[in-house]
Amino acid sequence: xxIKRSDKNPLITPKDVKPSQLGFRVDCTMNAAATTFNxxxxxxxxxxxxVISDNPDIIKIPVVEEKNxxxxxxxxxxxxxxESYDFSDSRTIRLKPGDKTVLYLTSLSHFRLARSSDGxxxxxxxxxxxxxxxxxxxxxxxxxxxxxxEGRYYINYTAVSxxxxxxxxxxxxxxxxxxxxxxxxxxxxxxxxxxxxKVNGKYIALHRPxxxxxxxxxxxxxxxxxxxxxxxxxxxxxxxxxxxxNYKVGGGAQVIKTDKGWLQIYHGVDSTxxxxxxxILMGLNDPxxxxxxxxxxxxxxxxxxxxxxxxxxxxxxxxxxxxxxxLKIYYGAADEVMALAEITLTDLWxxxxxxxxxKSEQKCVDELHLEFTTRLKDSKFxxxxxxxxxxxxxxxxxxxVPFNQNGxxxxxxxxxxxxxxxxEVIFFEENNNKWYPVxxxxxxxxxxxxxxxxxxxxxxxxxxxxxxxxxxGFLWYKTVFFKGxxxxxxxxxxxxxxxxxxxxFVDLDNKIGIFSRPQHPEGKVxxxxxxxxxxxxxxxxxxxxxxxxxxxxYHLSDQLDKEDWLGANEIHVLKxxxxxxxxxxxxxxxxxxxxxxxxxxxxxxxTKTHSTMKIIAERKMFIDGPAKSxxxxxxxxxxxxxxxxxxxxxxxxxxxxxxxQTVEIDDPFLEYENL
Length: 675
Known about the structure:
Structural class: mainly beta
Number of domains: 2
CATH architecture of the largest domain: 5 Propeller
CATH superfamily of the largest domain: Glycosyl hydrolase domain, family 43
């Protein structure tokens, strides 16, 4: 789990805000609601102001009182030498030590709009958007949340007065005019968070009553027909046994709908009064059902601006947004400044312990091909042949995906005569749409190269062909591996078992995944490996790679019909932690001609589950050309895939065991990356 604080933190501080009137100073800019409007990110900022006092023994208290039918700011004075008053909390003045009764707040809060075109750099309006002006707001208005519901922006907030702490509601359509709708939860009740859509015909909200006699301040769920009158109250969440929220909990940001459920970023308080943030995921059709909850804090006070401030050791949110699968949490830090933290939804789901459930169905290649042709019926493609020079008329095929080496784009390709199985792997670089051998680059007597970056090193693999040790006139093979900082420093470090191709590595941060292809030595159908299946194993470093690891690999034995075969070609680590496997599937037809197709599936390395195989390319999609032999005319061998931000991908393949081609297709992993 990786949550990242903005490099611009704190985004807004008291010095960025002009006081609302003379003689006031801004103490806190915190706990802002967040939304988007007219292409901008808006924060509805809680601005807490106090009155400047020229006497160190006198605290000047701003409150709102009614005068001649209008609500005006009045300044009261309190002498700090009064022994019956408790001044230990910077936020309040209490009647006496140990008494929870609050006489005054030391500041008066109102709401100010802050606007940003990038969600990071904000400009704060000079005048308040909302200012206290009812008898329920004489001590101020606090902690707003904005929820866009049916095209209108509803603002719920805490209204504070000697009568108690209540929840009020307002609405705006343009962030210019605002209409107060009144008190919707009586005292003491705060931290209301409204769902953005009705659920089963009802508006839903979380709220946090604070019992003064029996009970604890827990989160409750309520329902309404009109957002004004609430009922059907149910207890939702209390303090847990987890260390970070074992004292009390309360609502945070507005409730956000995701495809996994309703998401609430809430606050939890521990026994030391340390405020942290966590996440709850609720059922889309039954929000009282908690799907997942943070066992550990998602965000906790760590930085100086979170630990030190008006009231330290606090991170507290009233607003969050999801943009491009990133959750942006705007939060108040130390009750003084505004900050931003971001986490991908993938990492958030991991934090919550959600498991992706992959479903797989075993099929034969003919079934997969029928699905492919049905899915892409009437689709048009624009394939391109790669042109290679400097190879003395030999064929270049089964290429790798292009990769960057010291600022140059390189491809490795299999180079051989049409009448031979003995080939070389040569590195090529592009010049004017043609590919030329890289000067002074090493060449290897190998077939079917593959490249990957493992622990910042380039890894090259290829198939070494040699005479079969027992079957005269037959060839045998094994995969050999090289690594180095670039193509000029490659050195051999490992070999795979005899008779095995299509071994691929993937860097998984703290380990290395290995996809291999066990098969029966004679390709015997029904035996272990049969004509070729995919297996998976893991190692800590490349030095741990050996045949024993391959022999003990987990077999994905339920992917294809036993008459067919397959292998992995290139591995992509998706944003959600799944592995996207570019592969090939193959079959014999009734004439014993081979049919190879480019294919994909995704694999979960934690659960060892995988999706159903899917064909993504066939020979008919590419430009006509020669085949090494008649039985190979329908061969497409996957080389690599370049994924693009547009949702498209460039597929690199070998065709007919003679040529290399590319074609643009829809990104085949995109649907899995959004699981």
